[in-house]
Amino acid sequence: MPLEIQVTETGPIPIAARLHSDAVVSRSKPKSRERYPFLDFLRAVASQLIVWHHLSFYGPLPETAYPLAPHLLDWLARYARMAVQVFFVLGGFFTARSLTRSKPLTGAVILSTMWQRYRRIGTPYLVALTVAIFANALARRWMQHEAISDSPSVGQLLAHAAFLHDILGYPALTAGIWYLAIDFQLFFLCLLTFAGAEIWARRRGDTSSDAVPRLVLKVLAPLALGSLFWFNRHPKYDAWAIYFVGSYFLGIVLHEFLEGRLRLSWAASYFGLVVLAAIVDPRPRLLVAAVTAMIVFAAARTGIMQKWPTNNVVNYFGRISYSLFLIHFPVLLVVNAWGAVRFTASPAMALAGLLLAYGLSVLAGILLYHGVESRVR
After folding, report:
1. How many domains would you assign to the chain?
2. Residue 125 placed within a domain
3. How far apart are the C-alpha atoms of 117 and 377, rounded to whole Å?
4. Residue 219's closest CA among 188, 195, 197, 244?
5. Which of 211, 358, 365, 367 could join 324 via S-S bond, C-beta 3.0 to 4.6 A?
6. pLDDT tens across 123-137, in order?
7. 316 contacts 354 by C-beta, under 8 angstroms
8. Which residue range forms the structural domain that includes residue 155?
């Protein structure tokens, strides 16, 4: 999913026995579904950090509770949002994984693939967006705050439904949905690149099973470098996929290296360029992406990707991470508005209000997951 926040993909990860192995996976291989508990764990941690970033940043409750934990709330407000880089790296990893195992990308398959993706991530998103509209209307009755959106216009609703709100200049109706729009753009970019690579490989008469992934890497690498050293340095591009390609491509590189289609020297070189870009123009978010890639690499090489953690609660939080990501902000907005006159008498009461908002957000995420997301997945 977003992220891709999707937590299941097709087939096991065949880790190359040798760094320069020629082992490849057929793109017509029958699909199976398998969970990766370690990646669920990463998603669980990242989604929790994003929830607490919003809890610490928006509304009167964190302002009142601030004296109780100033350093923690400052850290959450400033740095926890960078956890979205985990989703970018994993999104690139899973996109490469699914597209290298897909059937030949004809026009019909491309349309079908985009529709299936929109249905999978868009259905729970549209439900959460509807909840957000009502939550904003309810919150306006209790308080005035910059986090509360005005009643949406028809154009604003259509732009949100098409993931075009940022590009068209409409204010977001809820927090975090910019990521969904970017993730959709990135997937579409990769899908078209894979399709173009298939056509080019056929015309060249290259029928080897790794021809298409190899061409895709050659096409996306210049875009990724342009992103790292130019586009990602200028916020005016942040409504477009090009701003984030550098982190997403890191996940693709990681996947291709683990599959044995990319030499260690090339994978290490790109990883080094990510770190260099983060140093040349200090961007801690790129360092978070690099650390995420290293952690996933270590998990794959040590064999814990599919074996750890075994804690069912942690794994469950990983599964509901997308639904929690979608629904938590409308919940905390309403709790903040309602608690503006009930929980701001003291810092302790405000902290209790934040904990209430968190608990209700988790409950709402569970309901959205079982009521909608798991049904369309």
Report:
1. 1
2. yes
3. 9
4. 197
5. 365
6. 999 999 999 999 999
7. no
8. 8-376
| 240-285 confidence digits (pLDDT tens) | 999 999 999 999 999 999 988 889 999 999 999 999 999 999 999 9
| 18 part of a folded domain | yes
Q: Based on the number of CB atoms within 10 Å of its own CB, is 194 exposed (0-12), middle (13-18) or buried (19 or more)? A: buried
**Euclidean distance between CA atoms 250 and 256, whole angstroms:** 10
Is residue 33 one of the residues assigned to a domain?
Answer: yes
Q: What is the pLDDT of residues 345-362, one digit of tens each?
A: 789 988 999 999 999 999
Nearest to 66 by CA among 56, 53, 52, 78: 56
